[in-house]
């Protein structure tokens, strides 16, 4: 009997040791390590004029170049990064790298050139954001590059006095403000207008349903009408087909973004293509 007890204890002990060695490290620790290693890199996706199809800017999308797992998509790590506050140093890396690369290639970019950056809710409650934007603008030191801060609808919901002052300051620096994923949250535009918006980005879920679901089309039409009244420009996200692009243009959407024009590619590649005047690769 004792021998059996000792054997079972030993088995459990070895299993415990194995787990200690091989347990998955928490995502938080992995993110901290990756920040130190500068594994977060900017990808760029073009935004075009809906009528002329000319390039008007890009959206910067974060990617994680993990040494073992390869390229990691943001939906797998952004939520944890936002909840833990690590999104702030991560955004710092992205803004620094983006400014550095834009500076090298600014001569080959159209004037004006809009650069959209996704901003987490934590950032909107912190003075760090205006410092970040200040150094970005200093670094690119070019009036034609316009920094567009993309806030998703849910986080712009509560506009505090602090946020309002912060955004006033940012507008003073020349930044523009976009509401991302518009139509998926519950905020009222009256509330959002307190921060003097420039753009609404129509969420891809509505674009996907063009020609399929009339409710999405009604929502797009109503959004366009409302945006025009408030003098806001509209960007449609997730445009994948010519039919969607044509519909959106006819409805009065100003700018388009999606796989129809280009998937997100490394910012450096995008800028090099621009410099060489090479067509943007199309595909998923
Ligand atoms: P988002 O800001 O709404 O970005 C648009 C997403 O749609 C991107 O996904 C983009 O790759 C994808 N997309 C673009 N065109 C198409 C299309 O034609 N079809 C389809 N199906 N998808 C398209 P991605 O890059 O995976 O990013 C997902 C989300 O992660 C972003 O949504 C944004 O909320 C967040 N994110 C990305 N980068 C950052 C960042 O630097 N900071 C923060 N806080 N969030 C970020
Ligand atoms: Mg965005
Ligand atoms: Mg979006
Ligand atoms: Mg989104």
In short:
The chain has helices at 2-22, 27-36, 78-84, 87-105, 121-124, 128-140, 153-156, 161-173, 189-192, 204-208, 214-229, 242-251, 267-276, and strands spanning 40-49, 55-66, 70-72, 113-118, 145-152, 176-182, 199-202, 233-236, 255-256, 265-266.
Can you put this structure into words, describing what you see?
Helices cover 48% and strands 20% of the residues. It is α/β, with parallel strands linked by helices and 284 residues long. The chain has an 8-stranded mixed barrel with strand order 1-2-4-5-6-7-8-9, surrounded by 6 helices. A hairpin with a 5-residue loop joins strand 1 and strand 2. The protein binds ligand C2E and magnesium ion (MG) (3 copies). One magnesium ion is lined by residues 152, 180-181.
């Amino acid at each position: 009997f004792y021998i059996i007890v000792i054997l079972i204890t030993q088995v459990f002990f070895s299993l415990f040791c194995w787990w200690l060695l091989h347990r998955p490290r928490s995502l938080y620790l992995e993110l901290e390590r990756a920040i130190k290693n500068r594994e977060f890199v900017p990808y760029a996706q073009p935004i075009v004029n809906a009528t002329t199809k000319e390039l008007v800017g890009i959206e910067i999308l974060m990617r994680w170049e993990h040494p073992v797992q390869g390229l990691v998509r943001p939906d797998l790590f952004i939520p944890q990064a936002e909840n833990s506050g690590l999104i702030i140093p991560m955004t710092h890396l992205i803004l620094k790298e983006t400014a550095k690369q834009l500076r090298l290639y600014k001569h080959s970019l159209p004037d004006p050139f809009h650069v959209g950056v996704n901003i987490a809710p934590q950032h909107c409650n912190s003075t760090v954001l205006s410092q970040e934007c200040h150094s970005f603008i200093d670094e690119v030191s070019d009036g034609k590059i316009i920094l567009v801060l993309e806030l998703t609808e849910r986080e712009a919901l509560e506009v505090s006095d602090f946020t309002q002052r912060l955004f006033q300051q940012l507008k003073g620096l020349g930044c523009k403000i976009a509401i991302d994923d518009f139509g998926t949250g519950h905020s009222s535009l009256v509330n959002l207008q307190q921060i003097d918006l420039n753009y609404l980005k129509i969420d891809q879920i509505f674009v996907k349903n063009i020609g399929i679901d009339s409710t999405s089309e009604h929502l797009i039409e109503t959004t366009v009408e409302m945006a025009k009244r408030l003098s806001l420009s509209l960007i449609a996200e997730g445009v994948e087909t010519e039919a969607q692009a044509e519909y959106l243009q006819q409805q009065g959407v100003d700018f388009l973004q999606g796989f129809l024009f280009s998937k997100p590619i490394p910012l450096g590649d995008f800028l090099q293509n621009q410099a060489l005047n090479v067509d943007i690769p199309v595909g998923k």
